[in-house]
Amino acid sequence: MRRVEAQPLVARVFAALADGEFHSGQQLAGELGVSRGAVWKAVDSLRDLGATLHAVPNRGYRLRSGSDALDAHRIKTFLPATVRGHVRSVETAWTVDSTNSVLLGRPNPQSGVCEVFLAEYQTAGRGRRGRAWVAPPGGSICLSVSWTFREVPKDLAALGLAIGVCGLRALQELGLESMALKWPNDILANGRKLAGILIELRAESAGPACVIIGIGVNVALGPELLQRIGEMGGAPATDLVTAGLTHPSRNAIAAALVSQIVPGLLAFEREGLRSFVEEWRHSDALRGRQIDVHTLEGVARGLARGIDLHGALVVETPQGVRRFISGEVTVRAVE
After folding, report:
1. Is there a contact between 184 and 230 (Cβ–Cβ < 8 Å)?
2. Which of 21, 164, 295, 309 would be a feasible disulfide site paired with 327, CB 3.0-4.6 Å?
3. Residue 46 covered by a domain
């Protein structure tokens, strides 16, 4: 469980502040073996990356929301033995362009085992359709899993829906309620976006197919950043703290996600979407609502009727029932 890079000072300062308590500059300098000026620069760098810190005279610095630093060893320790045997490696990094890109640049893992990669900060984190994924240090989970199917499974285009169910299961185990799934790749809490899924495929015309599954979960972004995300043109956002999870451990959350994704991938390889359909339908945030589906061919309006057995979105339009395997969905305001 090696780390990708030696930790820079800014990462070490972040880890020292991760308990949410005040630490004086002098104390941090002594613990880290650097000057107080170096600590000040590291704190300033954390602010530049989007972390919210308080600085109080005679008390020092603290992160507004305490958040445990990502730790590969702790994450793997949290995994049940049945899952651990399918995990070849767990790695964490302070910063990368994107966790998906790191795994895309590596050879395919052997079928039946996965590689797990997390980063505190992504310089080019992305969601679907190239949107930026905003994730300051400590505020989110940026996690990717690489997995090789022996053969291209049926319903591969619907894998994101299956992973959505896995993510929902993991968060429910942590005690969250009032969650739903929005086709094709979002997990909602109280109607706001909590997590997103991005799947990238590397496959040959015949033979094994490697998928890189990226999951971003908002953990503790704070009201100002949540508002800014909403103003960027995406869906209204929320985080785990706002949704009611007190003192969330990101290492425990990451382990919960992997603990559901691994058996989910094994089930998907055997049965495709079949074993996930009913659970997905039960949590469908769109069913029965008037929606617009944005595709390359234009915009289709109609009433959402759920998903079919292969994961296509079924929409009742004035021109008849249509099925969509890709697209962007917005819910229409009640007129």
Report:
1. no
2. 295
3. yes
Instruction: Mark whether 25 and 103 lie in a shared domain.
Output: no
Show the 3-state SS of 207-220: CCEEEEEEEEEECC
Residue 310 belongs to domain spanning: 286-331
Three-class DSSP category at 107: coil
Which domain-ending residue is among 247, 265, 281?
A: 281
Active-site residue, from 182, 193, 250, 287:
193
Domain count, the chain: 3
Question: For this structure, is 193 an active site residue?
Answer: yes
User: Does residue 80 have a cis bond before it (omega within 30 degrees)?
Assistant: no
Q: What are phi and psi of 194, to 5 degrees?
A: -105, -35
Residue 136 inside a domain? The answer is: yes
Q: Is 203 part of any domain?
A: yes
pLDDT tens per residue across span 105-127: 999 999 999 999 999 998 876 55
DSSP 8-class letter at 239: -
Catalytic residue, candidates 41, 128, 131, 154: 128
Round to whole Å and give the CA distance between 294 and 315.
12
Q: 276, 283 in Cβ contact below 8 A?
A: no
Task: Please indicate whether residue 88 is annotated as part of the active site.
Answer: no
Active site residue 332: yes
Tell me the whole-structure pTM to 2 decimals. 0.89
Same domain, 159 and 299: no
Give the residue from 68, 27, 18, 73 showing the smallest Cα distance to 46. Answer: 18
> Closest Cα to residue 242, out of 179, 170, 330, 164?
179
The rounded distance, in Å, linking the Cα atoms of 285 and 48 is 36
In this structure, what token pair is assigned to residue 143?
Answer: 């996690």
Task: List the CATH number of the domain containing 327.
Answer: 2.30.30.100
